[in-house]
Amino acid sequence: MTLFDDDRYAWRETYFVCFESSHRPKLPDARRALQTHAPLLEVLDAQADEHENLVMLTLASYEDHAAVEVVYREGNDILDEAKHLFHTLRGDATAKELLRLQKIVHWRTRFDVHHFEQTAATGVFNVTKLPEIKFPERSTTAVDHSDVFTKALAPDKRQFYFDSNSYERCRHGRSGEISETAGMDSEIERINPEMLVRVLEILCDISQGIALDPASGIVLE
């Protein structure tokens, strides 16, 4: 079941990881990379095609009050969206970002990385479906990447520029807004973007791809 249909999660934003089709990662490779570089992430669901290519991956970090749903997409519409993104974002891109954006206009494959936060309802999980997990304390010497996407998490950056059909669920089914009963201020403050950054880094590494936020234009490779 997609997290869009789970009332314990509220959609926040969607990032893209664009890559060349020949570099599409296998699900076993994704699992190994996650186990090595993000062992505290819980895999809730994973799907592959008959060739073991990654199709869908759902991850949760209860410590960070966040979850990510990774969905593979391909086709001419992806290429058209990439070209649109390039023309939309190039005006504000740095020279380094522009070089990266120029690559995606030739790629017809990507992962849509949907970022969710746990709502107040997660306090009453059905443990047979989504168990509570205790995590060890993080090392105080660990590198903090949480500021990388601070700009992308701004409330006024949660909109898309294109593809209304593909993202109808996001805008009309899950707008990204928190219900009044969830306690908006406390919920927004408690979500940790570090989990999202780690997933984007891993996906970029195993696909030799480029991650970007289509709303703010932030690019990560």
Keyword list:
alpha+beta; 28% helix; 7 strands; globular; 221 residues
Helix content: 25-40%
Strand arrangement, major sheet = 2-3-4-5-1-6-7
Query: What is the string of helix and strand elements?
Result: EHEEEHHEHHHEE
The number of distinct β-strands equals 7
Shape: globular
Number of domains: 1
End-to-end gap: 30 Å
Figure out the total of helices: 6
Question: By helix and strand content, what is the structural category?
Answer: alpha+beta
Rounded to the nearest angstrom, the radius of gyration is: 17 Å
Give the strand content: 15-25%
Mean pLDDT: 76
General description of the model:
This protein is α+β, with helices and mostly antiparallel strands. It has one domain (3-220). 28% of the residues lie in helices and 23% in strands. A seven-stranded antiparallel sheet has the order 2-3-4-5-1-6-7, sandwiched between helices. The longest helix has 14 residues, at 76-89. It is globular and about 40 Å long.
Layout of helices and strands:
Blueprint lengths: L8 E11 L7 H11 L4 E7 L5 E8 L4 E9 L1 H14 L5 H10 L4 E10 L49 H6 L10 H7 L3 H14 L2 E3 L6 E2 L1
Quick overview:
The protein has one domain. The protein has six helices and seven strands; from the N terminus they run E-H-E-E-E-H-H-E-H-H-H-E-E.
